[in-house]
Amino acid sequence: ETGVTQTPRHLVMGMTNKKSLKCEQHLGHNAMYWYKQSAKKPLELMFVYSLEERVENNSVPSRFSPECPNSSHLFLHLHTLQPEDSALYLCASSQGTGNSPLHFGNGTRLTVT
Amino acid sequence: QKEVEQDPGPLSVPEGAIVSLNCTYSNSAFQYFMWYRQYSRKGPELLMYTYSSGNKEDGRFTAQVDKSSKYISLFIRDSQPSDSATYLCAMSATGTASKLTFGTGTRLQVTL
User: Fold this and answer.
1) What is the pLDDT of residues B6-60, one digit of tens each?
2) Which H helix or E strand runs over B81?
3) Of A7, A75, B105, B107, which residue is most buried, by most CB within 10 angstroms?
4) What is the spatial distance between Cα A3 and Cα B111, in angstroms, rounded to a whole number?
5) Total Cβ atoms within 10 A of residue A61
6) How far is B15 from chain A (nearest CA, A)?
7) Which residues, other chains included, contact A62 with Cβ-Cβ below 8 Å and sequence gap of 6+?
């Protein structure tokens, strides 16, 4: 496996469910990100994990909880989501958080019913 | 006013046409500019990266930055059906990946 791998590719969950999204990068990078991509809206940064910083977008609701056990793995734990949380969730990695480009996974398409 | 404005399209052009994709922005501190290409059901991939004003060319692709007008462009020469995708502009003041501001993306369709 190369690049950034996200699982599952698709997820349908009810508002009372708890689920987790998984991301794994095989690029030797040391920074990982969660982005939310909704139709007709720009990519929204949710969380960043790196040696240099951990950034949380203050507008992200607490029903989204990130976990980064090491530099290769990133999780997004989901609980009591709302229908407006339906979107494509993209994981990305980079070498540091400076000028290095982002490498994205193919995303998890989440539908909240 | 959005910090970055990008026409969502869709933009439909015949094969072989020259395509111009554009973004305008309001933050004069932006000096790092990127274009990402996103195919359907895939994640974005970096296409072009430029710093400050000027042009950068890579094969059929040319990125142009006009900081005085707060306007960036991506030109695609001899467009191919394989260029059909959504093109996202992104920019930042510091180049820091965690500080990128993205446009909404322009969907391009190149027809045979």
Assistant:
1) 998 899 999 999 999 999 999 999 999 999 999 999 999 999 999 888 899 999 9
2) none
3) B105
4) 30
5) 11
6) 26
7) none
Q: Which of A43, A91, A108 to mutate to test the interface with B (most CBs of B within 10 A)?
A: A43
User: Cα separation of B107 and B61, whole Å?
Assistant: 16
Phi, psi of B99 (to 5 degrees): -115, 20
pLDDT digits 0-9 by tens, B53-109 = 889 999 999 999 999 999 999 999 999 999 999 999 999 998 787 789 999 999 999
pLDDT for the residue A51: 74
- What are residue B90's DSSP bridge partners? B34, B102
Rounded Cα–Cα distance for residues B107 and B47 (Å)? 15
* pLDDT recorded at residue A53: 67
- pLDDT one-digit tens code per residue, A32-91: 999 999 998 999 999 999 876 677 787 899 999 999 998 899 999 999 999 999 999 999
Residues 6+ apart with CB under 8 A from A43: A35, A36, A37, A90, B44, B88, B90, B100, B102
Judge: B97–A101 Cβ closer than 8 Å, yes or no: yes
